[in-house]
Design a protein that fits this description.
Length: about 325
């Protein structure tokens, strides 16, 4: 028999659905606006005529992006930094979380406290910048080169891999693995690394997929430290730094590009934010690059989404 819904419950559901719909529209609309602007004419973009659908249809923005080799070099740098960086972060995050999940670890409480302490109090941008520079000098010495000459992509990958929140999520997930399974593996002669990779990791796939998603998105969207650490290595720029500098150049924030640089060519083809082609706006090109930049995340996220809620619950709740 179907239960009759009470008035208070009906009102709660209506309010909840309205708020969820509004929140969903707020999340989706920026992407729709960027997509519409990338296909809209120069006059429509510059005058703010776009609300939902493209106005003055054009595809020259995407043609400009597809023919821009510098953009795709930056795109490849982002793929490399996100892929290799995520693998690197996951390797030592899993090993660190495994060690911290063991009660037999000497000084376990102190290590866990220091890990959480970094989430309460941040050292700030300047100490972090000096730390990255010191790490770069050490890496340069290992590779037999100098800090300014080394490829800064590796510094971004290696020195920026730590995230206390992700370590705690994975540690809590490992603590939820039954101790009896580990004991059975040790009776069979398994080593510490075998226990980690053949017992704990297979039994924590949901949390590992969630943490990998966090690392991947952070690496893909990150631009601040890449912009700060390698301002002169344009060949190593990720696509986010490329887009940021493109906006600066086309908006007139930077008016003196280096002679013979790719930016000099951009300035020569842009006048007051509008390309020499009257039907193409610089902002349309920016939106086209943004759409191209989010495609990998849109392709990967649906496959990991099913692990997301389960992984956060497993790693975020400790019994």
């Amino acid at each position: 028999m179907k239960r009759k819904m009470e008035i208070s419950e009906l009102i709660f559901k209506i309010v909840s659905y309205v708020l969820l719909i509004v929140f969903a529209v707020m999340c989706v609309y920026p992407f729709i606006y960027a997509l519409s602007s990338s296909f809209s004419s120069s006059s429509a973009v510059d005058s703010g005529e776009i609300v939902l659908w493209p106005v003055g249809w054009q595809t020259e923005a995407y043609r400009w992006v597809f023919e821009n080799n510098v953009f795709w070099i930056s795109y490849a740098n982002t793929l490399f930094m996100a892929g290799v960086g995520t693998v690197w972060c996951m390797l030592y995050t899993m090993m660190g979380a495994y060690a911290l999940s063991k009660k037999r670890l000497i000084g376990r409480r102190a290590f866990n406290f220091f890990l959480v302490f970094t989430m309460w109090f941040s050292a700030g941008v300047v100490p972090q910048f000096l730390n990255y520079q010191a790490t770069g000098n050490v890496m340069a010495g290992l590779f037999g080169t100098t800090y300014p000459e080394m490829d800064q992509k590796w510094l971004i990958i290696i020195a920026m891999g730590m995230n206390a929140q992700n370590v705690i999520l994975l540690r809590n997930a490992f603590e939820g693995v039954p101790a009896e399974i580990e004991e059975a593996a040790r009776i069979d002669g398994a080593t510490e690394m075998q226990v980690l990779f053949k017992v704990y990791i297979p039994m924590s796939k949901a949390t590992i997929a969630t943490v990998a998603l966090f690392f991947g998105i952070s690496r893909w969207n990150g631009y601040f430290w890449a912009m700060r650490m390698m301002p002169d290595q344009q060949y190593s720029w990720p696509v986010q730094v490329y887009i940021r500098n493109f906006i600066d150049q086309t908006s007139g924030l930077i008016t003196d590009p280096a002679e013979g640089s790719e930016w000099e060519h951009v300035i020569s083809t842009v006048g007051q934010g509008t390309f020499s082609t009257s039907n193409l706006s610089a902002m349309s090109v920016v939106y086209a690059m943004v759409i191209c930049g989010v495609i990998p995340i849109l392709c990967i996220y649906p496959f990991i989404q099913k692990y997301f809620a389960k992984g956060v619950n497993m790693g975020g709740v400790k019994e």
